[in-house]
Amino acid sequence: MKFFNQITGEHVIPADWQLQLKPGDYFIVEQPIMGIIGEQGAQQFDTSGIKIHVRIDKATRQPGFFLCTGFSTFCPGGEQGRQCIMDATRQITKEEFEQARKRDWK
């Protein structure tokens, strides 16, 4: 399985642990910059230091993508969306996820 990175223009291959992610798993996304496309056009936000704690809710029809709910200090109430396994920085346990919730996603 390969994915195309639109930023670098390269094809990338997921790590073994990313390929094994499944509904019910948890992972962290750490990105220094987050891009959002909305009514005002494309915008970028400095998200260095913000960890997005993601719960995989269910698989999609497209391999390597899941419907997830992500939580962070930026969005403490959670936000649902489609997430690619390549975005996962590292897998965490349910206990680590719940500890982060108690710390307000820090």
- Our count of helices gives 2
Give the overall shape. Answer: globular
User: How many strands in all?
Assistant: 9
Straight-line N-to-C gap: 32 Å
- In which range does the helix fraction lie? 10-25%
Q: What are the low-pLDDT stretches, counting only 5+ consecutive residues below 50? A: none
Specify the biggest β-sheet. Answer: 5 strands, antiparallel
Structural class: mainly beta
- What portion of residues belong to β-strands? over 45%
Alpha-carbon Rg, integer: 14 Å
Question: What is the mean predicted local confidence, pLDDT?
Answer: 82
Report the order of strands and helices.
EEHEEEEEEEH
Strand order of the largest sheet: 8-7-6-3-9
Give the count of structural domains.
Answer: 1
How would you portray this structure in words?
This protein has 106 residues and is mostly beta strands. It has one domain. It has 2 helices and 9 strands; from the N terminus they run ββαβββββββα. A 5-stranded antiparallel sheet has the order 8-7-6-3-9. It has a two-stranded antiparallel sheet with strand order 1-2. A two-stranded antiparallel ribbon has the order 4-5. A hairpin with a 2-residue loop joins strand 4 and strand 5 (41-46). The chain starts with a strand and ends with a helix. The relative contact order is 0.22. The mean pLDDT is 82.
Q: Key features?
A:
9 strands, 12% helix, five-stranded antiparallel sheet, two-stranded antiparallel sheet, mainly beta, 2 helices, 106 residues
Short note summarizing the structure:
Helix content is 12%, strand content 45%. With 106 residues, the chain is mainly beta.
